[in-house]
C-alpha cells in the first residue's frame, strides 16, 4: 500500500496532529477519542511505511518522514479547500464562515466592525485569529485566513491589500510622569526616559525602530513584550513610556489612566489595510465584508473613539 490509499479524513487528522503535536487536542477537535486518533495515524504510517511521530518525554515530535508528509498533505488539503471555495463562489452563496487574521492592535477595533457587519448579515459566522504582523502575513500567504486586518503587508506579491482607515500612533506615559503635562516636547526631551517596546516582528516595533532611526534618536529600551495590554500596564506602573497605536489606548486616555506625550511630529499616521491572498478566490461573503470595511471602517472607528471621549471625567 502507498500513501495514495490514505483517506482525506486521515490526512486531515494527521495534519492537525502534526501542527498541534497533541493527539488529545486533535481528538477534541474531531470529536474522537485519543485512541481513535492514534489508530488513524497508524493507518497513515502503514500507507507510507514510515513512522511519522516519535515520542520525546511526555510529548511527540515529527520524524523527517512526518515533516515531508505534512508539507505535501497541507498542499493537498489547501487545493481541495480552494476548489470548494471556487464552487461555492459560483453558487453565489452569501452566508457561511469568515476567518479573519488580526494583527494584535486590530483587536481593539475589529470586533466593533465585525459586530455591525453581522447585525446586517446574521447568518455569517466569524472566526478571529490574531498574531503579530509577520505571523498574520504568513497566515494570509498560506491561505489559513480568508481576510486580514493589518498594517501594510510584508509581501505585496502574495497579498492584495487596500487601505480603509487611518491608524495613528502616539507616545504614552503614566499620568505621574514628569513630562505628562508638558504642552509640547521634542523627541530629544525623552533622552532620559525608559522605553517599553513591542517584540521583533510586530508592526508597531518596525514603526518604532524606523521612526527613532529617522530622528537620530536611540531610546533606552528597558522592557519588550508581545502584548499591548502588558505594555499598557507597564506604562501605568511607571516602568517607562511607549509608542503605541492610539486605538489601543483611547479608553485609558479618556479615563485618565494614561497620558499622551505631546511630541512634535506625532502622531505618526499609518493606514489600516484589508488584505487577502491574490491567488485565493473570495467567496461572496468575503467580498462583502471586504467592501463593508472599505466603505464604513473609518466611520465605525470614529464612532468608537467618540464614545470613548464621552467617558472622560467632566464630559
TrEMBL record:
High-level lineage: Bacteria, Pseudomonadati, Pseudomonadota, Alphaproteobacteria, Rhodospirillales
Entry-linked SUPFAM superfamilies: Periplasmic binding protein-like II, Winged helix' DNA-binding domain
Superkingdom field: Bacteria
Keyword DNA-binding included in the entry's annotation: yes
Protein name from the UniProt record: HTH-type transcriptional regulator CbbR
InterPro entries, per database record: LysR_HTH_N (IPR000847), LysR_subst-bd (IPR005119), WH-like_DNA-bd_sf (IPR036388), WH_DNA-bd_sf (IPR036390)
UniProt KW keywords: DNA-binding, Transcription, Transcription regulation
Ranges for domain HTH lysR-type: 7-63
Family of the protein in this entry: Belongs to the LysR transcriptional regulatory family.
Organism: Azospirillum melinis
Pfam families: HTH_1 (PF00126), LysR_substrate (PF03466)
Amino acid at each position: 500500500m502507498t500513501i495514495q490509499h490514505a483517506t482525506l479524513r486521515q490526512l486531515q487528522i494527521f495534519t492537525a496532529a502534526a501542527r498541534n503535536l497533541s493527539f488529545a487536542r486533535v481528538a477534541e477537535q474531531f470529536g474522537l477519542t485519543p485512541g481513535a486518533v492514534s489508530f488513524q495515524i497508524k493507518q497513515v504510517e502503514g500507507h507510507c511505511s514510515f513512522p511519522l511521530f516519535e515520542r520525546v518525554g511526555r510529548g511527540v515530535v515529527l520524524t523527517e518522514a512526518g515533516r515531508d508528509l505534512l508539507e505535501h498533505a497541507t498542499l493537498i488539503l489547501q487545493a481541495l479547500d480552494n476548489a470548494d471555495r471556487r464552487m461555492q463562489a459560483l453558487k453565489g452563496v452569501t452566508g457561511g464562515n469568515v476567518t479573519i487574521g488580526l494583527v494584535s492592535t486590530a483587536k481593539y477595533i475589529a470586533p466593533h466592525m465585525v459586530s455591525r457587519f453581522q447585525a446586517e448579515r446574521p447568518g455569517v459566522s466569524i472566526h478571529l485569529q490574531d498574531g503579530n504582523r509577520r505571523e498574520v502575513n504568513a497566515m494570509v500567504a498560506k491561505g489559513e485566513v480568508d481576510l486580514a486586518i493589518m498594517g501594510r503587508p510584508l509581501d505585496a506579491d502574495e497579498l492584495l491589500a487596500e487601505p480603509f482607515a487611518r491608524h495613528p500612533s502616539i507616545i504614552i506615559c503614566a499620568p505621574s510622569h514628569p513630562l505628562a503635562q508638558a504642552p509640547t516636547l521634542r523627541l530629544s526631551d525623552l533622552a532620559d526616559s525608559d522605553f517599553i517596546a513591542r517584540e521583533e516582528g510586530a508592526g508597531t516595533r518596525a514603526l518604532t525602530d524606523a521612526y527613532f532611526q529617522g530622528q537620530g534618536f536611540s531610546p533606552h529600551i528597558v522592557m519588550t513584550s508581545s502584548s499591548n495590554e502588558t505594555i499598557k500596564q507597564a506604562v501605568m506602573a511607571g516602568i517607562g513610556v511607549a509608542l503605541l497605536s492610539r486605538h489601543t489606548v483611547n479608553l485609558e486616555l479618556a479615563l485618565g489612566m494614561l497620558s499622551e506625550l505631546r511630541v512634535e511630529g506625532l502622531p505618526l499616521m499609518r493606514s489600516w489595510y484589508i488584505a487577502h491572498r491574490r491567488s485565493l478566490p473570495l467567496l461572496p461573503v468575503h467580498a462583502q465584508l471586504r467592501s463593508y470595511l472599505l466603505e464604513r471602517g473609518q466611520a465605525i472607528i470614529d464612532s468608537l473613539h467618540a464614545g470613548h471621549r464621552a467617558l472622560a471625567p467632566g464630559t
